[in-house]
Design goal:
- The chain is an alpha+beta fold.
- The protein has a single domain, classed as Aminopeptidase, CATH 3.40.630.30.
- 31% of the residues lie in helices and 32% in strands.
- It has 5 helices and 7 strands.
- The chain has a 7-stranded mixed sheet, with helices on both faces.
- The protein is globular and about 40 Å long.
- The model has no long low-confidence stretch (mean pLDDT 91).
């Protein structure tokens, strides 16, 4: 798909659309044998998406006015982020979470386009870098982030999430 992704900052009225995207992704993940983000189906929102929308941290992309995916960019660390990256009270970094693609658009390079839009936005806000964590054994996602220019900054092991012990890779994209 060669069309340009247009980035939108989600508004309160977009909450249902954003939640529907997340639920669709969780159901797809489950169909692939993954329990990642499964708490969403039980009403657990560890990222407090509604409040993140109110703070202007949730973004979605469209192509020709059709929604294709979303992500969250925090300019402060959550407890999760500080446990991985160490405490950093600055606002020098964005922390990327919940990169999600509507299944009908998977395999079309939308994830890379959304990541590029996140980079452009972060640079416009004067950030030093974008940071994220990724389940270490998810080869597809690790390759996606590496191909998008994110550099592996380490590995955190034996973290309990979604009722399973998992390892996470830490990635950072330095803005030039």
């Amino acid at each position: 798909m060669n069309e340009t992704v247009r980035l939108h900052q989600a508004k309160r009225t977009d909450l249902t659309m954003i939640n529907d995207m997340l639920i669709q992704t969780v159901l797809w993940l489950q169909s692939q044998g993954s329990s990642q983000w499964s708490g969403i189906l039980e009403g657990q929102d560890n990222h407090n998406t509604a409040e993140a929308i109110n703070r202007g941290e949730v973004f979605y992309g469209t192509i020709n006015s059709q929604t294709v995916g979303m992500f969250i960019l925090w300019d402060h660390q959550s407890k999760w982020d500080s446990s991985f990256w160490g405490v950093d009270k600055s606002t020098d970094y964005f922390y990327l979470h919940r990169l999600t693609i509507i299944r009908a658009f998977s395999g079309q390079g939308i994830s890379s386009k959304l990541l590029n839009e996140a980079k452009i936005y972060a640079k416009s806000k004067g950030k030093k870098a974008i940071r994220l964590d990724c389940i270490a054994d998810n080869q597809y996602l690790n390759k996606l982030y590496q191909n998008a220019g994110f550099v592996n900054r380490g590995k955190i092991t034996n973290i309990i999430t979604d009722n399973q012990k998992k390892d996470f890779n830490l990635y950072q994209y330095d803005l030039k």
